[in-house]
Design goal:
Structural class: alpha/beta
Radius of gyration: 23 Å
CATH topology of the largest domain: Aldehyde Dehydrogenase, Chain A, domain 1
Distance between the termini: 61 Å
Strand content: 15-25%
Bound molecules: nicotinamide-adenine-dinucleotide
Number of helices: 15
Shape: globular
């Protein structure tokens, strides 16, 4: 069994999680510890005990450890990518890309540890100076989803450690392998005992235990339902909280768009990574004049996508990550048809030589904004095309959602691009690019019900992982 890491010691648990390969249900990736509330309490206590010494380490010490971890992740990207593809189901190139991203994030925050700055200014009172400095928040709990098994743990852990916090990570039940590998790398990179703790297992069991054990801050990525209940629980306990939740991201295709480019953006944004990205383009809002050509061409390209085993070189789309997610996708496909949307292509469960959760990407047309297909996050390879009378109508449809993570526009007009950038109600806007696919050195996050609290990633990560102190210095 792969153990939990608590206070620098690998500890087994009474029960285990079986990590299955969604490309091949006969391939068991491994057995992983499933922690108890006591394990979580001990992990939080270990992080609490380790905090004073870790928060007083020099930026150089923290930077060196993060840099070492980043180097190992990058050096082992092939092996770690294979593990990730086996447990989550994204294709090997996608998985290696994600691992590379995780390594780059550690390198970036190795630099950020050295750039933790304050401000010194004159007081409004004579003879007094004001120093504004940043300090770590304390013990940070991290709860992560299954769709980015190493990148999301990395983009939360790296800034937390860089700025002097100690960490307890609770990864998603479905994908403990990549988080375990990350813990192993961090441990060997030289982190003192208790600075980083890993407790794998059920969110329903370990989440409440984490909050009750007395963490100072919680960074969560996952579904809206879980996030909103955690936000309430954190508010009652005075825990600083940051939530990244779902999306129902629009890609608007203006009449003047380059057809092939727009189709490529839609195909990538809607279906790559099996549509299991919070930034996936699940609503394709297409202006009247280009609409029919766009739907015809996108249907051809979708039908040509090769769905298969995540490790097979010819696969472009891996399996859906779990049985429950596949059932959810199929029920949305059936529901879309029942609501009157036109299924242009796909949507069915596919058989391959290995037993897995394969699904043909589903493309719907003639959708209306009130359909569930257009309102609820599906989190799978299901895209809905809405017809718009004009760019203004398309923008109104794009903003007609409780979510606000990413929004895209395909156009050749600078004026439209500028207008969309200013008026799309989303945290991230992409022009002539897929809505999914972001950089690690700039802020990541959304508006409305997609996100809550400060942004993640880039220099902006410091807002969540530090607290500000204002000191008045008299003479
Ligand atoms: P989920 O909410 O079911 O689970 C996320 C994590 O929360 C898991 O680790 C789970 O064990 C844990 N959890 C479950 N119940 C809990 C509880 N009561 N208390 C504490 N923790 C609990 O989400 P998921 O199915 O793993 O992930 C899919 C969702 O994540 C989608 O909605 C997707 O949009 C979202 N997501 C968002 C982003 C983003 O940055 N906006 C990125 C990736 C995924």
């Amino acid at each position: 069994m792969h153990s939990n890491l608590i206070d620098g010691i690998w500890r087994n648990s009474q029960t285990a999680l079986r990590n299955d390969n969604p490309s091949d249900l006969d391939d068991v990736v491994g057995e992983y510890a499933s922690g108890s509330p006591d394990d979580m309490r001990e992990a939080v206590a270990a992080a609490r005990a380790a905090f004073p010494a870790w928060s007083r380490t020099t930026p150089q010490q923290r930077s060196d450890i993060l840099d070492t971890a980043g180097s190992e992740i990058l050096a082992r990207r092939q092996v770690l990518g294979t593990l990730l593809a086996r447990e989550e189901g994204k294709t090997l190139p996608e998985a290696i890309g994600e691992v590379t991203r995780a390594g780059q994030i550690f390198k970036f925050f190795a630099g950020e540890a050295l750039r933790m700055q304050g401000e010194l200014m004159d007081s409004v009172r004579p003879g007094v100076e004001v120093l504004v400095s940043r300090e770590p928040v304390g013990v940070v709990g991290l709860i992560t989803p299954w769709n980015f098994p190493i990148a999301i743990p990395a983009w939360k852990t790296a800034p937390a450690l860089a700025f002097g916090n100690t960490v307890v990570l609770k990864p998603a039940e479905l994908v403990p392998g990549s988080a375990w590998a990350l813990a192993d790398i961090l441990q060997r990179a030289g982190l003192p005992a208790g600075v980083f703790n890993l407790v794998m297992g059920s969110g329903h069991v370990l989440g409440p235990a984490m909050l009750d054990a007395g963490i100072d801050a919680l960074s969560f990525t996952g579904s809206q339902r879980t996030g909103q209940s955690l936000a309430k629980a954190c508010a009652v306990r005075g825990i600083k909280v940051q939530l990244e939740m779902g999306g129902k991201n629009p890609l608007v295709v203006a009449d003047d768009a380059d057809l092939e480019q727009a189709v490529e953006c839609a195909l990538n944004g809607a279906f790559y990574a099996t549509g299991q990205r919070c930034t996936a383009s699940s609503r394709l809002i297409v202006c009247n004049r280009i609409h029919d050509a766009f739907v015809t061409r996108l249907a051809e390209r979708t039908a040509a996508l090769r769905v298969g085993h995540a490790l097979a070189v010819e696969s472009q789309i891996g399996p859906v990550a779990s049985e429950a997610q596949l059932a959810n996708n199929l029920s949305h496909v059936a529901g879309g048809q029942a609501e009157g949307a036109r299924l242009v292509y796909g949507g069915e469960h596919l058989k391959r030589t290995t037993r897995g959760y394969y699904q043909a990407p589903a493309l719907f047309a003639d959708c209306t904004p009130d359909m569930r297909l257009c309102r609820e996050e599906i989190f799978g390879p299901v895209a809905a095309v809405l017809r718009a009378e004009s760019y203004e109508h398309a923008l109104a449809l794009a903003n007609d959602t409780p979510y606000g993570l990413a929004a895209g526009l395909c156009t050749r007009s600078l004026a439209l691009a500028t207008h969309f950038r200013r008026h799309a109600e989303a945290g991230m806007v992409m022009v002539n690019l897929p809505t999914a696919g972001v950089d690690y050195h700039v802020p990541f996050g959304g508006r409305k019900t997609s996100s809550h609290g400060p942004r993640e990633q880039g220099r902006y990560a410091i807002e969540f992982y530090t607290t500000v102190k204002t000191a008045y210095l008299g003479s």
